[in-house]
Amino acid sequence: MRSRPTRWAVAVAAVAVSSTLLAACGSDGDGDSPAGGAGGAASAAPKRGGTLTFAVGSDSACVDPQQVGSNDTVYSMRQTVDSLTDQDPESGEIVPWLAEKWEISPDAKTFTFHLRAGVTFSDGTPLNAQAVKDNFDTIPNLGALASLGRGYLTGYVGTKVVDDLTAEVSFSQPNAQFLQATSTFSLGLLSSASLQKTPQERCADGVIGSGPFVLSKYVQGQSISLTKRAGYAWGSSLWENKGEAYLDAVEFKVIPEAGVRTSSLQSGQVDAIGAVAQSDEAALEGSGVTLQARANPGVVFNLSLNNSRPIFADPKVRQALLLGVDRQEIVDTVFPTGTKPATSILAHTTPYYTDLSADLTFDKARAGTLLDEAGWRPGSDGIREKDGQRLSLRVVWFANAATNQPALELIQQQLKAIGVEIELAQLQIAQVTAALQAGEFDAAWGNVTRADPDILRSQFLTTGTNFYKLPASELDAVLTNQAAEPDTTKRAALVEQAQGLVVDNAYVIPVVELETELGVSNKVHDLQFEASSRIQLHNTWKE
C-alpha cells in the first residue's frame, strides 16, 4: 500500500512561519503529530524494544550533524541531537522543543530563548544557555562541510547568557529566517566535549548530543549504529511519545545498489530502505511493503553550473541548456510516482515558492537556435564546436539516490540531441565537496533540502561559499534583503524576485523536485517525516 501524507499548503506555511516570528513567543501546546506515519496500521499500542534496520545508499564519511548534508547520513545523525524548536510538517508552524518559548525583537535582530529545565547531553553535562552560546559561537568557524549552519548564522554577533535557562542570540542585521533555522539538524546542539574537537575529529569519531538516540558505532562506508538514550524526556512538542524512544537500537546499513536494498527489504533482512527506485515500486507494493513519500522543500535537483567557466560566459549557452532538458520525460522515466518536474529553483513545498514553469519549458529547436547564435556549430559527430573547442561538460555527482545515475544518463541523451556532450564523473561525497571548493567541475548534480526559502541565500549569495561562482549582481541584494525582512508580504515578493533572477539567468538548470520515497515493512509503525522530509524515529516501533 502507498502512504502519501498531505502536502504543505504553502501559503499557510509561509504565514505560519512568519506569524510565529512576529508573535514573539512559542506555544506550550502539544501540537499535531508529524506527517507520514508508516508501516502497518497502528491499531495496537506501541511496543517497546527491538532494533530497526534501515538501508541507505551512501555514507558521507562524517557523523557530525552540524557538518553533514546528505540525507542518507542526516537520517541517522538527526536522531542524536535536539533543536531549540521544531517545525510542523503540515502547517510550517515553528513550535517548542528544547525552548519552551521565545521572544523576537521587532527588528528581528535579537532572539531570546527560554529553555526547558533538566535537559542533559548523553555525557551527563547540562544543556543550558551556556551550551547554546558555545554551539552558536563555534558553528561559524567550522569548515565548508558546515555551510548550512554557517549560513543560518550570517551576521551573528553573539549569545548572551541571561541566566542558566535563558539565551539571547543577537545579529548585526535583521535575520527573519533564524527562527526556522533553529529547528534544523544543522543547528542541533552538541556538548562542550564535542565542540572542543576539530571538525575532522567530529566527522570521524562522532559527537555527543541530547537526542533520543546515541551513536554507538560507526564503520565508514558500512554502517552507523545507534542505541536508545536512557531517561530521555524532552522531545519535541509534536511527538506523541513523551518519554524514551520505543526502539532499543537502530542500525543504518550502507547498501549502494538499489536492487539489493529492495531484495533485502522483501526478504526481511532490513526493515526499511531509502531512495526507492521507480522500477521497484510495484514489486515492493506486491510484497506488502508500504511506500511512504513526501516532496522535499528547498532547492530542487539541478545541474549547478560553474559560472566561472568561459563556456558559460555567454548566457545563450546557459539558456540553451535550460531549454534542452525535457523535465517531464525525466520524471516519467526515472522518478517515483508522484514526483513533480521542477517549476522553479525551489520545490513547490517551500514557503514563498513561485511557479516559473513557463520559463522552464522543453524547447529543443529554440535551444539549438541559441547555440547557433552563440557561435557553436555541429561537428562531424553532432557535438557542437567553436574555435576548435568541443561543447563538452564534465558533470560531477555522487550515488546517494538510485535515481541519480539514470536521471543524469537521460539528461546526457537529451543534451546530446542539441549538440552538447556530457561526461558523467561519479565521485564520493567528500570528493564532490572538494571539487566544488576547488572549482574543479563544469556542472554538479544535487539538491539542498530546507523548509525555508533562505536556502537560496545559502546557495547563491556571492559573498558566501559561492561554490557555483556566480558573478556579483542584483541577486545578492535581493537574497540579503529577504533574509532580513520580517514583513511576510515584502519577504514573499523578494523571494519571488530571487527565484526569477536565478531562473532567468540560468545560473543553474532546475530539473526535478526530490520526492523522498521510503520502503517500510508492515511490521514497522509510525516511522514519520519531519518538515524537511527527513525521518523521525522517536515515535517508531516494531511488532
Number of helices: 17
**Total strands:** 26
Q: What fraction of residues sit in β-strands?
A: 15-25%
* Proportion in helices: 25-40%
**Sheet/helix structural class:** alpha+beta
Most strands sheet: 8 strands, mixed
First-to-last CA distance: 18 Å
Strand order of the largest sheet: 1-13-22-12-2-11-10-9
Task: Return residue spans where pLDDT drops below 50 for at least 5 consecutive residues.
Answer: 1-35
Shape: globular
Mind explaining what this structure looks like?
By secondary structure, this protein is an alpha+beta fold. Helices cover 28% and strands 22% of the residues. It contains 17 helices and 26 strands. It has an eight-stranded mixed sheet with strand order 1-13-22-12-2-11-10-9, with helices on both faces. A five-stranded mixed sheet has the order 19-18-20-14-21, sandwiched between helices. Strand 7 and strand 8 form a beta hairpin. The protein is globular and about 70 Å long. The two termini are 18 Å apart. Mean pLDDT is 91; it is low at 1-35.
Write the layout of secondary structure elements.
Elements: E1 2-3, H1 10-23, E2 51-56, H2 71-77, E3 85-87, E4 94-96, E5 99-104, E6 110-115, H3 129-138, H4 147-152, E7 156-163, E8 166-171, H5 178-181, H6 192-195, H7 199-205, E9 213-219, E10 223-228, E11 249-254, H8 258-266, E12 272-273, H9 281-286, E13 290-295, E14 298-305, H10 315-323, H11 327-334, H12 364-373, E15 377-378, E16 384-386, E17 389-390, E18 392-397, H13 404-416, E19 421-426, H14 429-438, E20 443-449, H15 455-460, H16 474-484, H17 488-504, E21 508-512, E22 515-520, E23 524-525, E24 528-529, E25 535-536, E26 541-542
Parallel strand pairs: 1-13, 2-11, 2-12, 18-19, 18-20
Antiparallel strand pairs: 3-4, 5-6, 6-8, 7-8, 9-10, 10-11, 12-22, 13-22, 14-20, 14-21, 15-16, 16-17, 23-26, 24-25
